[in-house]
Specification:
Length: about 300
């Protein structure tokens, strides 16, 4: 690395995108292989989770878990119960974060590099930067998608998913002093994607679901993960919700990046992966790595190396 590059602070802005966010694992791994190590990490929603995981030294552990996960493992995070504030089992999610992302007692101030998780104040819609306090709690707040994840109470405020206000936190990286920002935008192709070959689980996995998951959870999950409904049928509840979220985040992302563009924007093509198809991590990780490889000339140029 030359002298001019050594003086530059690199910011990594990890965007929101639910299951598409597993591609952040591949992105970070590929950057590190190229000797590009971010000085500042900011993340929104799943981006906050992967960023926190990387900075706490658990990226390899998380990758091993996600590559071994199935639809059944995803179902276990959902708890169907009327009157609750979200469908995600908060206790199970908290345990998952503590075991695979950040220890229960790890504070943001203790991790080796500046980190911010983006959340949204549910009362006034303001963008909230979480850069102090418990790391796992900050991640939970950043990814608290309304209707699915319960809102998180933090300093007398109810916080929800940061993707509602800043899906790709380039501006946050700059505020923390980044000279060059590498942004990972997971929303670039989510609107009107080209038809893709439908992914089907293996037969033994289907059988496992039928044997191990309660019928209510199976019925619920069928609207989370598409099951091949005919085009003329009206969208299911969660299809309508997820598509609406995709539209909102696409528009916000375009607006934010137009006003404050990153030096390098990497946009994995992942529209064929549904918002809650977390079991398709292998595809997402591979796409993240591939996008970095194809962007290396641009990245080197931004860093003054060519």
């Amino acid at each position: 690395m030359n002298t001019s590059t050594a003086k530059l602070k690199i910011g990594l802005a990890l965007g929101s995108g639910a299951s598409r966010g597993w591609s952040h694992i591949g992105t970070i791994k590929a950057l590190l292989r190229e000797g590009i190590e971010p000085d500042i990490v900011c993340g929104t929603s799943v981006g906050a989770m992967i960023g926190a995981c990387y900075l706490s030294g658990n990226l390899e552990k998380l990758e091993k878990w996600v590559l071994g996960s199935t639809r059944t493992d995803v179902y276990k995070f959902f708890k169907v119960k009327l009157g609750q504030s979200g469908f995600v089992d908060s206790d199970r999610l908290r345990k998952f974060l503590h075991e695979n992302v950040a220890a229960s007692d790890l504070e943001i101030e203790q991790i080796p590099k500046p980190f911010v998780a983006i959340a949204t104040d549910l009362e006034n819609g303001r963008e909230v930067w979480l850069q102090k306090g418990n790391l796992a709690d900050a991640v939970r707040a950043s990814m608290a998608l309304p209707g699915l994840f319960p809102a998180v109470r933090h300093n007398d405020r109810w916080l929800v998913d940061g993707g509602l206000v800043n899906p790709v936190p380039v501006s946050t990286c700059r505020a923390l002093g980044a000279d060059v920002v590498i942004a990972i935008n997971l929303n670039a192709d989510v609107i009107n994607p080209k038809p893709q070959k439908k992914h089907e689980p293996e037969d033994d996995e289907k059988k496992g679901v039928l044997q191990k998951v309660k019928q209510t959870t199976i019925e619920y999950s069928s609207v989370i993960i598409p099951s091949g409904n005919k085009e003329e049928e009206s969208p299911g509840l969660f299809a309508a919700i997820t598509n609406s979220i995709n539209i909102v985040q696409d528009r916000i992302t375009r607006s934010r990046l137009a006003g404050d563009p990153a030096e390098v924007t990497i946009s994995p093509r992942l529209a064929h992966i549904g918002m809650f198809e977390f079991h398709r991590a292998g595809e997402a990780i591979e796409e993240g790595e591939s996008c970095v490889r194809h962007s290396m000339e641009e990245i080197r140029r931004a860093l003054g190396e060519s």
